[in-house]
Amino acid sequence: MSLEAVVGRIDQILTYQQALVDPGSLAAASSGSGSSGFAAQLASAQATQSPGSTALAGDTTSVTSNALPSALEVSGVGGTSGLSGAARMLAAAKTALGGAYNQGNHDAVSDSASQIQQQGTDCSGFVSYLMGPNGIGDWSQSYATPSIPTAPGMQPGQGSYVTIWNNPNPGNAGHVWIEILGQYFESSGSGGVHQMDQGEVNQYLKSGQYQPFHPAGM
User: Fold this and answer.
1) Does residue 107 register a pLDDT over 70?
2) Cα 85 to Cα 137: distance, rounded to the nearest angstrom
3) What are the residue boundaries of the structural domains of the chain, listed by start?
C-alpha cells in the first residue's frame, strides 16, 4: 500500500471514529477543522524531513523523528499507541478548538469535543481530555500539572508522535501544553483552547520550565 493510500485511509477512519464519539464534530470535520488536515501534514512532513532530529525554529530543543511505521500499524483502528493513536488525538484536539479557558471545568477527561467547545476547560483539563476516552483512552480521571509525570502511561522524554510539555508547579504557577504530530495545542487564559503558533512554542521552551513526557508507545 502506498503512503498516500495509507494516509488517506487514516483520514477516513478518523472521520468515522469522531462522528461516533461526538456526532456534532462531523460538520466541523467536513469544514476543514477536523482530521482532514492530517493527511496533508503527514505527507508534507515525510517529503521534507529526513530521519534524525529537527530543531524548532529559533530554539535548540530537538525533536526526534522516526521512520514511517508499517501500513499495518498506521491503519489500525482504535489503537492507543503509535501513529494511529496520535492521529486520534490530533482529530480530538482540532474538533475542540474554540473552547474557553475555564478553571471551573478541570475534570474534562470524559468530555466530548462539543462539550469542550461549549464549556471550556483549563490547561490540564484539556490534556486530560486528549488522554481520556475521547482521545487515546489511557486516563480515566483528570490530572493536574503536579500529577502528570506519574499519571498512567506517562514516560519521561519526548515522544515520536506526541509530547506533553509540563510545568509541574501547582495551581496558576504551573501549565501544560501538548505537541501532536508536529502541531501544538493548549488551553490558556490568553487564548482558550487553541492551536499554538511557533512563537508561543519557542517562548515556553526558552523559559526552561517545561519537562517533556509522552504516552507509552507514542
Assistant:
1) yes
2) 9
3) 3-50+63-215
